Amino acid sequence: MSWFKRENGESESPVSSNDEEKIVRTEGLWIKCNGCRQTIWKADLEVNQNVCPKCQYHFKLNARQRLDLLLDPGYQLVDAGLRSTDPLNFSDVKPYKQRLKKAQQETGLNDAIINAVGQMGPHAVVVSAMEYGFIGGSMGAVVGETIARAVDRARLEKKPLIVVAASGGARMMEGVVSLMQMAKISTALAQLDDARIPYICVLTDPTTGGVTASFAMLGDLNIAEPGALIGFAGPRVIEQTIRQKLPEGFQRSEFLLEKGFLDAVVHRRDMKNYLIRALDFMRLPASA
Fold first, then answer.
1. Cα distance between residue 162 and residue 258, in whole Å
2. Rounded to an integer, what distance in angstroms lies between the CA atom of residue 200 and that of residue 211?
3. What is the b/e burial string over 43-54, where b = at least 16 CB atoms within 10 angstroms of the residue's CB?
4. Are 170 and 210 within 8 A, CB to CB?
5. Considering the domain boundaries, does residue 49 fall inside one?
6. How many structural domains comprise the chain?
7. How many Cα atoms are found within 13 Å in the side-chain-facing hemisphere of 45?
8. Is 50 inside any structural domain?
9. pLDDT tens string 19-59
10. CA atoms of 255 and 230, how far apart (whole Å)
11. pTM, two decimal places
């Protein structure tokens, strides 16, 4: 809006075009920490692996960032050709097909999972990383099939399997098809266990619902990042059901470690080295 007009009716702008070029635009360069509520320079946060340098709050990472964090450069993406369908022709606020299309455009992924094979230090591994940004990391038919393929690949190639879980649970827009993935993946993991191939699950914030009730808790080693929400039902649902106030930190990774549900809580900066040391102790079966 102009501050004043000339006598001839022309508007006079308070800022010239040259002045506009000198304005420093800082939008998007700062972010507020959900832990300490302090404002952080975004570049500093990224250098620190998306961990707040002031309070160590762990921000979410996408699936590709997880692979970059854990695997040595040069890893290979596999099992990437699967796409979800709409078996129930489901629609709530919007059709499921539209949700899928939007999530694919926003994440650049076909679904909420990426499989990769590569090196983690001296170990050749198979890694399956979930993408929370894709419909809350929910587990539908494609996620179930992709993880099952990662399990089969690890078993056939005799490579340790690492799954990075980040999910709100089963994708209910696919109905019972989504719930079937719990048994499907668990059965494949039982075969992996029979073959004596190591399986490690890394639980991140959040890991809930049918994912927690199946493969996320079946690892030979179950570890989590600090402060991660892990559970089946959410804390508010539990409070409303039992009509009791839950203890401080309930369902957070430190609470679960104290109660024996986890083997370790590991800071993100130490995660790769921790996994390498763990694999050093896990003996693979001799090749035929």
1. 23
2. 14
3. eebeeebbbbee
4. yes
5. no
6. 1
7. 21
8. no
9. 555 555 556 789 999 999 999 999 999 999 999 999 999 99
10. 10
11. 0.88
- Neighbouring CB atoms inside 10 A of 85's CB total 14
Instruction: State the sign of the Cα–Cα–Cα–Cα dihedral 29, 129, 144, 259.
Output: negative
Q: Is there a cis peptide before residue 14, judged by omega within 30 degrees of 0? A: no
The answer to whether position 28 is within a domain reads: no
In three-state secondary structure terms, 107 is helix
Q: Are 190 and 215 in contact (CB under 8 A)?
A: no
Distance separating alpha carbons of residues 200 and 117, to the nearest angstrom: 15
SS3 198: coil
H-state helical runs in the chain: 17-22, 42-47, 63-70, 96-107, 141-157, 176-194, 209-212, 235-242, 253-258, 271-281
Rounded (5°) CA angle 100-203-225: 120
Please report whether residue 45 resides in a domain: no
Give pairs for 16-24: CB < 8 Å, separation 24+.
none
pLDDT at 1 over 50: no
Instruction: Please give the residue range of the domain that contains residue 259.
Output: 61-281
Query: Backbone phi, then psi, for 154, in 5-degree steps?
Result: -60, -40
The domain that contains 124 carries what CATH number?
A: 3.90.226.10
Q: Looking at this protein, which amino acid is placed at residue 52? A: C
Per DSSP, the three-state class of 288 is: coil
Query: Is the alpha carbon torsion for 105, 106, 110, 114 positive or negative?
Result: positive
CA atoms of 258 and 285, how far apart (whole Å): 33
